[in-house]
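Fig. S4 source data, part A: sequence.
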Amino acid sequence: MTLAEKIQSVFPRTTDIPKTLLKDIPCIQTGYLINGEIRAWDGPRQRVLSPVWVADDTDPKPFFIGEYPLLCESHALEALDAAVAAYDHGRGIWPTLSVADRIDHMERFVFRMIEVKERVVRFLMWEVGKSYQDSGKEFDRTIKYINDTLAALKDLDRISSRFSIEEDIIGQIRRAPLGVVLCMGPFNYPLNETFTTLIPALVMGNTVILKPPKHGALLYAPLLEAFCQIFPKGVINIIYGEGRTLIPPLMASGKINVLGLIGTSKTANALKKQHPNPNRLRCVLGLEAKNPAIVLKGADLDLAVRECVLGCLSFNGQRCTALKILFVQADIIDVFLERFAKAVNALTFGMPWQEGVFITPVAEKDKTSYLEALVSDAVEQGAGIVNTSETTVCGSFFFPAVLYPVNNKMRVYHEEQFGPVIPVLSFKNVSEPVDYMIHSSYGQQVSIFGSDPDQIANLIDPLVNQVCRVNINSQCQRGPDTFPFTGRKDSAEGTLSVSDALRVFSIRTLVAAKQTDLNKKIITTIVRDHKSKFLATDFIL
């Protein structure tokens, strides 16, 4: 069977799907969480079609896996009122709770979350087409992220548990919450990346409105009860629906204090403009990227090819940290392309539950048409598809296309493809990829492949001023989560490492008093008798 024939028969019949994976499918989600109450929705619902299509005697069709509520503007404003009331200008139960008590709530939530792991993982696989194995890894990584966040918060609180005396003034400096946070995550990591804003926002004492992503909404159904039962009412509110209906009235209210968004700069800019008091709005944003790889003469080509394949095509290239364009030194372009194309064609493709599968259907509706347009544009302007004789597409499945030679007249040179299309350029002078990065709208990461320390050092120094992470002989990536994750230009605002996220969702606040006998007596009494949650020397073990 040829490659094209295999792709045309890539989708299974319903009877071929393992029955264990069909449990809870379809999921008709009617619940949403506002003010500590899971409410039942009997209005319009959004049909959810999986990237996994199913075959029958005709052409394959999208597989129906469930529905979720399409709430109205009024419900979004109810959620906002609940979050505002729960915060109560910083006087609510949650923002005035001790750090130890907030950690206790979150630890109990983690326990409840682990209980529903299998359901969450199945929904994650069905909704975004991520392999079952990688869906499980995303869940496990999220649990680790929460635990690491709690450990970092304990460290931060221990440092703050002492008094400072400067210039005859006694002070205690701690971090305080900012208010109401609006969290919106992406479809590609609908659990993990959403939680990288949600969890630090919560544990720092903020109240939250969470809108799950369009692709990745059903997986929150198993978590609603835990959110409802663990946290005080109004602290976490989960609403479903179309972003253009729910979000503008929230921003226009002026009552959102922090916007935590993993998405696009276009969306972020539009939402910022809707807030009537922009100076009161803090933004924590993870946005687009067009991360390049620079493959130098003398690089270990086996290593470079392996890392570039992973960097370009893990989860079909649907990652902001993916390698989106490859610059290869002209002396080695032919051998690199030969090995790279061979490695791409050897990747296992198929359905998410298949053992060892690497390439799966793409998540977004009409994404394959967009990718085909990018390829057609590049071919019309002189590029070739070096790994196959044609673009091979079937429904929501797009087999990777390696394009060479690419130039600056092509759309794929400029646009973030966010999918399995890989543009490759050759260069003679290393200033060429550096100039590309200088003029790019994005500045997240770069990967350098080489073996000459002097050559790599000469690249590191200018590139750390263009991007926020330079990877040597490895693909671009987010982890480990203890490392800073951010970007320059249109790629990010704020930093989302474990410890940095705690800081961006809070602000340094202090209590200060002149070192007089009266003030010493007052502070001693407050601390000794545990009269304040903030002014305290309790040490969390």
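Fig. S4 source data, part B ends here. The chain has a mean pLDDT of 96.
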